[in-house]
């Protein structure tokens, strides 16, 4: 089968690899579309893999497809089911949990997460080593495969939105598909004041269409000033931050009210220093040939709590099903929010395009 194999930052090659076998507990999925994740794929593309065993493997954890083969021990699923499961990993099949069939509790799970120890979904077929109702969601057949390929990031956005209460002024910084899903869910939940921030005219327009009350293009206007003007100097109660630039974290802190909360839905491509005692415009040395200039924002330390959304959003299967319902409602669709589709043979071009926040919302690869 054909697969796009990752060999390090900026290097991906389409090669022939063996088609997988489902094994006794697993499944083989025919992949239809796979998304290029701006967070994990972006970090690997621009910086490095998270782990050396990613090298020589197909990436891809945002995907759509249907089961074509099942292992004899799999219960609750049938060939032809549209499913989503992530993070797929290869259990050891030897520890006490694996012997009980509780593979998701495997104590040796570091044998490899998807896009690490085993191939991901940038291939014609995906091997899922184990398939259970606790780890996989059956997805509706009346939602198209292009749209279903966004279930994972949309689920992250809907989960993060639940961190806000209806009366909270909620700031969403970074209006990629995660941020847009967050905006859509916030308004569905009745949050009265939603402010969106991005550098892209395209994404700003999409956020307005989803009901954001105020949207700021941070290349044209100061987002901190805009938030403070709207809130009469108080700041946002909840900030959901998906913008991957260090300056955005400083802007988020400055825009959030004292004792407010910031939820991160992203990783950062490069390390940086966050030190309120260092004044704006100061340059300081980080390492050989590397320096960093503090963005032009000064802020006083305040009682702001910063959380990562990962691991705090509850069980994944209900979240993916909720994402599918948001798609079924027509709020998030491929027609509206997938801006580019590339064939597998042009995976490198897909990665390069996905790194451009100005011209994209979501980039897919068609298998």
Briefly, what is this?
This protein is an alpha/beta fold and 367 residues long.
Textual characterization of the structure:
This protein has 367 residues and is α/β, with parallel strands linked by helices. It has two domains: 2-150 and 332-366, Alpha-Beta Complex (Quinone Oxidoreductase, Chain A, domain 1); 157-308, NAD(P)-binding Rossmann-like Domain (Rossmann fold, 3-Layer(aba) Sandwich). The chain is built from eleven helices and 18 strands. The protein has helices at residues 40-46, 96-99, 145-148, 151-161, 177-188, 201-209, 223-230, 246-255, 316-328, 334-337, 347-354; strands at 2-8, 11-16, 27-35, 57-58, 62-70, 83-85, 125-128, 136-138, 169-173, 193-198, 214-217, 236-241, 256-264, 283-287, 290-293, 305-308, 338-343, 362-366. A six-stranded parallel β-sheet has the order 11-10-9-12-13-16, with helices on both faces. Helix 4 (151-161) crosses helix 5 (177-188), helix 4 (151-161) crosses helix 9 and helix 7 (223-230) packs parallel to helix 8. The chain is globular and about 60 Å long. Residues 111-116 and 284-288 have low confidence and may be disordered.
